[in-house]
Design brief:
Strand order of the largest sheet of chain A: 1-4-5-6-7-8-9
Radius of gyration of chain A: 19 Å
Number of domains of chain A: 1
CATH topology of chain A: TIM Barrel
Number of helices of chain A: 15
Strand content of chain A: 5-15%
Structural class of chain A: alpha/beta
CATH class of chain A: Alpha Beta
Order of helices and strands of chain A: HHHHEHEEHHEHHHEHEHEHEHEH
Oligomer: homodimer
Helix content of chain A: 40-55%
């Protein structure tokens, strides 16, 4: 099926676009009253993720309501540990929580390599969303990067320091590599399944890149991200490693199309470090959307000029915060869509 | 009084030292059974901070037990908001909590500029510790950087994103500057009082530097850090801004002696950005101290070589974690003290 608005795909491939495309991380979520309405009908976040009809519905909402240039499938990075054998709960106000965590070699041996059919509900949601979108905009699929998934599997929940997960890296480097390889193999199967189901573009989220030293990031994260980049060939691929300041030069050498930047990364410095062969994505501070309309406009235009007209996909530098006003989020999107160099 | 071991002071001033000096952030704390014993006699963390005899005792412990080259006064960065009129509690497992936070101009108007006598218990603890140390090693005093203090005064507690505090910056920039100036004036009074009481060296902690964009960090943090640096003349001064990757060039221009690095900052890159006129402090990953003795040794020596023999004060890249083993912490210190270039 031809995609009518393929701005994002063209920007990812480094082709000229008539304007900068835009989508938002966590655009399908609590910022939209439309989402909260669907959500209130469900038992919880996971039920929403696991019910393709509802996941599809909230995936499409931001395209209708905010006018973004891509949809992203409504899902969660932690479906992978669950498919490998570690179920989790999403606790209100506390976030993800795993009853069982990885402690020993035996725990790792018992994990399955996930296959795409283990995550049939995601594949079904993608198929449904593709049908519903009817070629209006591309659909983005995604997964967590192996280090971030590993961190949750060891730690069992979110953490300020992820010191348990890092302790495992320092004390059990060989087991760490075993586990990371299993996660990587599962993630490749999962992402290939998403392409088969219809995803037009993929993104890898390394949310906890920022707790690792440069050396550890290369050894325990980039090595596996690189395997995934090499395995995904058919659609544009984005790597977003939050707070990975020190590894931007290495990220410029990954076999992928786009590198996501968070809002603490300087734009010209990042371009210099990453090089000219990648599209950059980002990187407005989500908190800007608390500001006045005038400030949102001027700061957004400043960001667009800093990135320049080519090889840029506009986005925030992290996900939307739930208490942002929908009108201001839409104003950010509109400002980008109206701007011409 | 002459200080017998003045390695740290000499390293801060850029003088040659016979070996690299070392101290640890949060060295006076739960890692030491000796600390936990004193702590168990007290009602809570704040009572310990506010009782000069006990604060002095736990300040000296790491010098005796770990053999570090400096003591740091046992206190808390949040004594400043309290002295300005915002009391706080330290909740077990949850961290700091303020009943009243800053919301309006009137809230800011009502705040006092703290004077050093408002924090007489810190001054008394410094005097006592100086007496007890009897010139063995220098005593470090400290304060929070204005942005970090501001973040707690608006947010009222710790936070993953400090989005309330950042919202205040975006929506109330003028009030933000008013509040930051009051905190800065209070901090200068406080630090000057610490020098008068006997502190041999001072450090500013900007713990939440990492949530701000480069532009906001310059406008709302570095501007005030710079005022403090200019006001402190009589003792070596260190600025440690965790995760402030993008602002290292500007930090190299501050009127201070030493810049602290966290473990995610690449050492040669930081030296290049900060320049050769500053001493660098840091920057081992605290989690390294979970590793085997052999790994601790080899990684520590690798770090020492990366910094080189001059203008380096060895430390971790963040505070000690409470569950680290005292023996391994001491081994890290010993490895540094035994190493010769």
């Amino acid at each position: 099926m031809t995609i009518k608005n393929d701005l994002i795909l063209r920007a990812a491939r480094g082709e000229k676009t008539e304007r900068t495309p835009v989508w938002l991380m966590r655009q399908a979520g609590r910022v939209l009253p439309e989402y909260r309405e669907v959500r209130s009908k469900m038992g919880g976040f996971k039920e929403l993720v696991e019910t393709p009809e509802f996941a599809c519905e909230v995936t499409i909402q931001p395209v209708d309501v905010l006018g973004v240039d891509a949809a992203i499938i409504f899902s969660d990075i932690l479906v992978i540990p669950e498919a490998m054998g570690l179920p989790y709960q999403m606790l209100e106000a506390k976030g993800p929580w795993f009853e069982k965590t990885i402690k020993t070699e035996n725990d790792i041996t018992q994990l399955r390599i996930a296959q795409s059919h283990d995550l049939h509900y995601v594949m079904d949601a993608i198929k449904l969303a593709k049908k519903e979108l009817n070629g209006r905009v591309p659909l983005i699929g995604f997964a967590g990067a192996p280090w971030t998934i590993f961190a949750y599997m060891i730690e069992g929940s979110g953490s300020k320091t992820f010191s348990k997960a890092k302790k495992f890296l320092y004390t059990q480097p060989e087991l760490s590599h075993q586990l990371l390889q299993k996660i990587t193999d599962s993630t490749i199967n999962y992402l290939k399944g998403q392409i088969t189901a219809g995803a037009d573009m993929l993104q890898l989220f390394d949310s906890w890149a920022g707790v690792l030293s440069h050396e550890q990031y290369k050894e325990f994260s980039l090595k596996y991200i690189s395997q995934i980049c090499d395995a995904i060939k058919d659609v544009p691929f984005t790597v977003f490693a939050k707070d990975a300041h020190s590894s931007r030069r290495e990220m410029g050498k990954l076999n992928c199309d786009t590198i996501g930047l968070d809002w603490t990364m300087d734009i010209p410095e990042s371009r210099e470090m990453i090089g000219s062969t990648k599209t950059l994505q980002g990187n407005m501070d989500p908190c800007l959307l608390y500001a006045s309309y005038a400030t949102i406009k001027s700061e957004t235009i400043k960001m667009l000029r800093a990135f320049g007209p080519d090889r840029h996909i506009a986005n925030l530098g992290h996900g939307l915060y739930p208490d942002l006003e929908k009108e201001k989020v839409k104003y950010f999107v509109d400002t980008i869509k109206e701007f011409r160099f």
